[in-house]
Amino acid sequence: MKFSQCVVAFVAAAGVANTAPSVAKRYLRQTNIDDVNSALTLKHLKDKLYREGLANYTASQFESAGFNADFYKNLQIISEEESTHVTFYESFLTRAGAAPVAECTYRFPSTDPESFLELASVLESVVVATFIPFPSNLYDLRDFAESMSIEATNTKHGAYFREAVKKDPLPYPSKYVLTFKLAYALISQYIVECPKMNTPLPFEPFPTLKLDTTQSQPVKAGDTIGVLTEGYILQPTNSSVPLKAAFITSHYIALFAETHAFEGGFMVEVPHDADVNGQSYVVITNRDYEDGVTRRDYNFLAGPVAIEVTK
């Protein structure tokens, strides 16, 4: 039995009503709608990624790449789970009287099973790292059980794909390090267009950062990486404080890194910190603090960009 089924079965056995839960519309705030639609935005992306991957690459192609038949079956299960998650969020919003965002048009750069799995490992890690609060004032116990099982499943998927591409499957001391605004900056490069009927984003997206294409991964503490601001010039909000890079960590700060600006970007030294490990995220900030800044959107000017760090 799947984990989500176990949790729901347990809650049902505890005496929860078997009918579909109703969501009290009078408690629905715009921030609640935005939060659930943010989660749905990430789910649509993953759901389409796996459906497209299964359509583009056959079981025999995965076997030729070194993955057995069980791996392909698991990939099919993962795809089905993602579609189920989409349905849950859509149903929740509809029952609450809100409009769920629809699937966008995406462009994924994978060209073979290996590059598809690499992209899946990156996007799964982004989702695992993103904290989107499910509106606790709106759900009943069955909604709560399903939302928690989705969180657990995200972590399972992330570890599975990281291990598949020979990365440390569980490198993080804590997983929630990104806001949705930061996560959106990472996934927006794969979004071509979204339906006009979709609710607009509740924020102005950050300018994107890119890694120098000559940069090999993974990197280690003390290595220097090139972070590029392609197509724009980043202006500081405080002219007396230089722009600097910071690595977002799980202990509620973005840790400053040794930074040297050049035309078109920054050279950044990976800091020596135990929390900078696995898929890590670099942002640019203009705040004037000693060691780092809190993980608040208003502290950041651009990014993040993802990079794999190993010990």
Overview of this protein structure:
The chain is an alpha+beta fold and 311 residues long. Helices cover 39% and strands 16% of the residues. It is built from 7 helices and 11 strands. The strands form 3 sheets. A 5-stranded antiparallel sheet has the order 10-6-5-9-11. Strands 3-4-8-7 form a 4-stranded antiparallel sheet, with no helix packed on it. A two-stranded antiparallel sheet has the order 1-2. Helix 1 runs antiparallel to helix 6, helix 2 packs antiparallel against helix 4 and helix 5 crosses helix 6.
Topology:
Layout lengths: L2 H11 L16 H27 L2 H6 L4 H27 L9 E2 L6 H17 L11 H24 L15 H8 L3 E3 L16 E2 L12 E5 L15 E5 L4 E4 L2 E4 L2 E5 L8 E8 L6 E3 L5 E10 L2
Antiparallel strand pairs: 1-2, 3-4, 4-8, 5-6, 5-9, 6-10, 7-8, 9-11
Helix pairs in contact: 1-6, 2-4, 2-5, 4-6, 5-6
